[in-house]
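Title: Comparing notes on inverse folding

I've been comparing how different people in this forum approach sequence design from structure. To keep things fair, I'm posting one structure and asking everyone to reply with a full sequence. Here's the target:
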């Protein structure tokens, strides 16, 4: 059986699809599994042993415009897939599914271009995104089983993480990894709050602090003299390797929440402001907690956050205090240290 996944969303969404990849392979062990995703998605799925082929959909380059999507569709049609699964709910992905000419094309019932599918899967808003994705495969042998997020850093990424620990004398310290960025401004806890946490934690010489993020996060003014600054210096799988070695990840509601969920030993403390857990994108890891301000009438204000607080007060983030976050981190590290 030849199976194709089409998912060209954000990095976090691609990471969240890895339990589906595992379920497909366990449900159809002899299947050939291909995955169409963005170049960034391909980078995070690299080395996944359950994927036979990663096909890059470069919608801003080689596959730009109608002609580009037709060319990619021609390639998919040539590969003769028996089943196409399309979790991405955008019209281009639905259309690409149809172009494959697969006899079975599954997508969500609320997707744009849903008429391109032969079978529609109910998008249950009450479930975690991972659970929604797992519903694409109905197999008695695997239904009901919990599947974890899985990423596969290669030897170079693992060595790079190990060298970071060695070079900064972190082997005998607790490590707190801070991810201060987000694509959306209202999802970002104020940088001065992150700095206050950095100041608080740096008072303990047995705690090492690492900052992570892409090049776009390098403009955030953190107290660099008190951190190991890896912003803009790691690939996605390098980042996964770093997170596997950390004790605590402090992050906004952004992709590190999901990348960190691939490491069961790393405690995730996720800061939720404009978004809420009920959207289904809270940490899948069972070693996690969400810090948020409940009972605000303006929450949630949007699925993805926004460029500014609609109410002007930004209480959903500003009322999560650095002192409360520091206490949560130290409480966990203390419990971890004492076993």
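Reply #1:
Here's my take.
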């Amino acid at each position: 059986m030849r199976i194709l996944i089409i998912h060209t969303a954000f990095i976090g969404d691609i990471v969240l699809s890895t339990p589906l990849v595992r379920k497909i392979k366990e449900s159809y062990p002899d299947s050939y599994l291909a995955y169409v995703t963005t170049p960034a998605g391909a980078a995070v799925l690299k080395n996944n042993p359950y994927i036979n082929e990663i096909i890059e959909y470069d919608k801003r380059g080689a596959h730009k415009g109608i002609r580009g999507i037709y060319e990619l569709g021609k390639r998919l049609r040539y590969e003769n897939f028996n089943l196409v699964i399309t979790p991405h709910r955008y019209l281009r992905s639905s259309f690409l599914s149809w172009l494959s000419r697969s006899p079975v094309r599954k997508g969500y019932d609320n997707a744009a271009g849903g008429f391109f599918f032969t079978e529609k899967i109910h998008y249950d808003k009450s479930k975690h995104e991972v659970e929604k994705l797992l519903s694409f495969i109905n197999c008695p042998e695997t239904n009901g089983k919990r599947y974890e997020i899985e990423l596969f850093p290669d030897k170079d990424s693992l060595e790079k993480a190990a060298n970071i620990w060695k070079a900064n004398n972190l082997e005998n310290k607790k490590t707190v990894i801070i991810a201060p960025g987000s694509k959306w401004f209202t999802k970002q806890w104020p940088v001065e709050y992150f700095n206050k946490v950095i100041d608080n934690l740096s008072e303990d010489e047995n705690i090492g602090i690492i900052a992570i993020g892409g090049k776009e996060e390098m403009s955030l003014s953190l107290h660099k003299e008190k951190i190991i600054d890896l912003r803009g210096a790691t690939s996605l799988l390098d980042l996964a390797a770093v997170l596997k070695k950390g004790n605590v990840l402090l992050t906004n509601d952004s992709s590190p929440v999901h990348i960190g969920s691939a490491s069961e030993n790393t405690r995730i403390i996720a800061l939720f402001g404009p978004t809420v857990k009920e959207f289904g994108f809270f940490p899948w890891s069972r070693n996690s907690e969400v810090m948020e301000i409940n009972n605000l009438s303006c929450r949630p204000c949007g699925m993805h956050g926004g460029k500014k607080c609609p109410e002007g007060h930004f209480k959903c983030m500003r009322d999560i205090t650095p002192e409360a976050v520091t206490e949560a981190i130290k409480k966990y590290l203390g419990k971890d240290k004492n076993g």
